[in-house]
């Protein structure tokens, strides 16, 4: 089921976007946001609460919302948030993210935020689930049933909703030009097809790569900026499914400790696409190489520099 659901991601994205972007690419319609424009114009802080994979999607959301709409965002593990008497005010927006809509910690954290008068918003996949009902307002991801407990297509759909929220808020707060806005909304519709082609083209390479590294005891996943939470998510998937120890790290933080673990037995998966801190990630790869770590990179198509430095690479379109 998990593999099937990975291959369903292109369709999941289409379902998530369906009906939410206007035909001229200039408007986003999200239930619960359109109806609360006055509150959102002055929202002071957004707190995202979630667990597991949904928490990683929340971290991507932090980079997106802060980056595009310039509203401060905090991302909290629901279980920690719940037990530390958090500071919540009526001018805050709380976004609870959950595939199942039933994760007990997320539900309890949402209830607490609601009691304290914050504007609560749910991002759930399962229609009519407890978190969706408790939030009252929110967006369904519509990724379709996810049977494999380790979340895959739901993550992609959650990130898609967070992109829509960040664009919505950026437009409301006039932090983005119309040209930038429409160029991103148009690109969102192209991603599904790119994803479909990529999944087909990398299938073989990934199977070979798995055979090559199946005996590895540890893996390190590195990324910078928005790719950092993606690295965390990659490591979580490997742990949960293969029972191989894996750690996700911000690539620059590697030198403050984990670098000691790198030797010829350590495969390091580096998200090294051209968008975002590219030169810096190249220098991080050189550091790994000098310690003889095995580099498996995820690169932008045609990137000869990182290809040359890598033991294996997977190319993805820009
Ligand atoms: C965990 C699963 O138990 O719950 C994770 O193992 C999942 O894969 C997490 O991400 C949170 O689930 P949900 O349904 O709240 O997104």
What can you tell me about this protein's structure?
The chain is an alpha/beta fold and 318 residues long. Helices cover 48% and strands 18% of the residues. It contains twelve helices and ten strands. The protein has a five-stranded parallel β-sheet with strand order 2-1-3-4-5, sandwiched between helices. α10 (227-242) links the parallel β6 (218-223) and β7. The radius of gyration is 20 Å and the shape is globular. The chain starts with a helix and ends with a strand. Bound molecules: 6-O-phosphono-beta-D-glucopyranose. 6-O-phosphono-beta-D-glucopyranose binds next to α4.
Looking at this protein, list some descriptive labels.
alpha/beta; five-stranded parallel beta sheet; binds 6-O-phosphono-beta-D-glucopyranose
Quick rundown:
This protein has 318 residues and is α/β, with parallel strands linked by helices.
Cα gyration radius (Å): 20 Å
Number of strands: 10
Overall 3D shape = globular
- The averaged pLDDT comes out at 95
- How many helical stretches? 12
Unreliable segments (pLDDT under 50, ≥5 consecutive)? Answer: none
Query: Bound compounds, please?
Result: 6-O-phosphono-beta-D-glucopyranose
The share of residues in helices is 40-55%
Largest sheet: 5 strands, parallel
**What is the first-to-last residue Cα distance?**
28 Å
Secondary-structure element series: HHHEHEHEHEHEHHEHEEHEHE
The computed structural class is alpha/beta
**Strand arrangement, largest sheet?**
2-1-3-4-5
Beta-strand residue percentage: 15-25%
């Amino acid at each position: 089921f998990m593999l099937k659901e990975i291959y369903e991601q292109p369709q999941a994205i289409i379902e998530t976007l369906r009906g939410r972007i206007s035909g001229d690419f200039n408007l986003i319609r999200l239930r619960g946001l359109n109806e609360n424009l006055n509150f959102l114009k002055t929202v002071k802080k957004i707190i995202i609460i979630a667990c597991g994979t949904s928490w990683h999607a929340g971290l991507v959301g932090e980079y997106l919302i802060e980056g595009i709409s310039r509203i401060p965002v905090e991302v909290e593990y629901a279980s920690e948030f719940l037990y530390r008497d958090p500071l919540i005010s009526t001018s805050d927006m709380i976004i609870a993210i959950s595939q199942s809509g039933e994760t007990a910690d997320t539900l309890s954290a949402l209830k607490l935020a609601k009691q304290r008068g914050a504007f609560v918003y749910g991002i759930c996949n399962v229609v009519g689930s407890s978190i969706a009902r408790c939030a009252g307002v929110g967006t369904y991801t519509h990724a379709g049933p996810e049977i494999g407990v380790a979340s895959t297509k739901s993550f992609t759909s959650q990130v898609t909703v967070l992109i829509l929220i960040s664009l919505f808020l950026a437009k409301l707060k006039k932090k983005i030009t119309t040209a930038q806005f429409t160029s991103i909304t148009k690109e969102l519709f192209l991603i599904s097809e790119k994803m479909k082609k990529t999944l087909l083209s990398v299938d073989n390479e990934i199977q070979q790569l798995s055979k090559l590294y199946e005996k590895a005891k540890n893996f390190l996943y590195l990324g910078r900026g928005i790719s950092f939470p993606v690295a965390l998510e990659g490591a979580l998937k490997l742990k949960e499914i293969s029972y191989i120890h894996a750690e996700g790290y911000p690539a620059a933080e590697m030198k403050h400790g984990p670098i000691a673990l790198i030797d010829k037995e350590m495969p390091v998966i580096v998200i090294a696409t051209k968008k975002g801190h590219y030169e810096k990630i190249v220098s991080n790869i050189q550091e790994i190489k000098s310690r003889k770590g095995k580099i498996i990179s995820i690169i932008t198509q045609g990137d000869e520099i990182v290809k040359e430095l890598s033991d294996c690479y997977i190319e993805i379109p820009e």
